[in-house]
Design a protein that fits this description.
The protein is mainly α and 239 residues long. 70% of the residues lie in helices and 0% in strands. The structure holds protoporphyrin IX containing FE.
Length: 239
């Protein structure tokens, strides 16, 4: 990706990602009572914030590390490490987000894993865990054989995009589900499109645009590191 394209593109993505996190936090703070870590609905409110920040925004940034033009020259190892650290940080947020929702459910005796959202979400998290473990083992451990890296790389690339698509689907279905739960006839029905619904629907659209732009950048051949198929690209940790 030429630098003159990369800078405005990353500024746009950075702004969209920041807005996704800001909107999620503002929704929870302004309409859903704010935050706590005590098993209440305020604890649940950390769930969307950690999930959107970790599995959409930070993960989206982590998968674009190899599209940064300055990463194309010199050794690939520092960029691999950055990719591993950013995805690990995203994973820590995801675990905290899951703790928030499971603790909220258990404290209030709410059933677990019954919704399509929860199935999509868990699938995304399971793929993400396997992807991180496999990526670390194949690409960073020095005793991993070259044939394994060559064989596994297209699978890693495929699941990298798939996980983001699943995270987008989980986030959007989670937003929709939360609005159906919260905006009932006792408050203002969702069908009357109160300001909260407008706001949260817009958050869903922001997540969609952010995720699609990341997927587009990943799929564009001209934006890939030119030597991504060379042996140097398979440089493991400690070599
Ligand atoms: C990648 C993002 C997300 C993932 C992986 C994810 C994952 C999950 C999982 C696994 C559960 C089941 C917890 C249980 O059964 O105890 C859950 C529940 C829930 N999530 Fe998310 N979530 C994500 C984003 C969101 C967002 C953005 C919202 C918006 C508010 C949300 C709202 C909910 C709600 C309302 C529940 C409780 C009801 C249910 O189990 O479906 N989620 N989530």
């Amino acid at each position: 990706m030429p630098v003159f394209q990369f800078l405005p593109f990353s500024a746009l993505l950075g702004t969209l990602g920041f807005l996704c996190v800001l909107f999620t936090g503002f929704w929870a703070q302004h309409w859903r009572g704010g935050f706590a870590w005590d098993g209440s609905t305020k604890m649940f409110n950390w769930h969307p914030v950690f999930m959107v920040t970790g599995m959409v925004v930070l993960y989206g940034a982590a998968v674009l590390v190899y599209r940064v033009p300055i990463s194309w020259t010199g050794p690939k190892l520092p960029w691999k490490l950055l990719h591993a650290v950013l995805t690990l940080a995203a994973f820590v947020l995801v675990v905290l987000g899951l703790v928030a929702v499971f603790k909220f459910h258990s404290t209030n005796s709410i059933a677990n894993m019954y919704s399509l959202h929860s199935w999509l979400g868990l699938a995304a998290v399971l793929f993400f865990s396997c992807q991180w473990f496999m990526g670390f083992s194949a690409f960073l451990l020095p005793w991993s054989p070259t044939w394994l890296r060559v064989l596994y790389k297209p699978i890693h690339v495929f699941f990298g995009s798939t996980i983001l698509a699943l995270a987008m689907a989980a986030s959007i279905s989670g937003i929709n589900e939360k609005l159906f739960f919260s905006l009932t006839n006792e408050t203002v029905p969702y069908a009357q499109l109160p300001p909260e619904a407008w706001f949260a629907n817009s958050l869903g659209m922001l997540i969609l645009v952010f995720g699609l732009l990341v997927l587009w950048a990943l799929a564009t051949p001209a934006w890939k590191r030119p030597d991504s198929e060379s042996l140097e690209a398979h440089q493991p940790l400690l070599h």
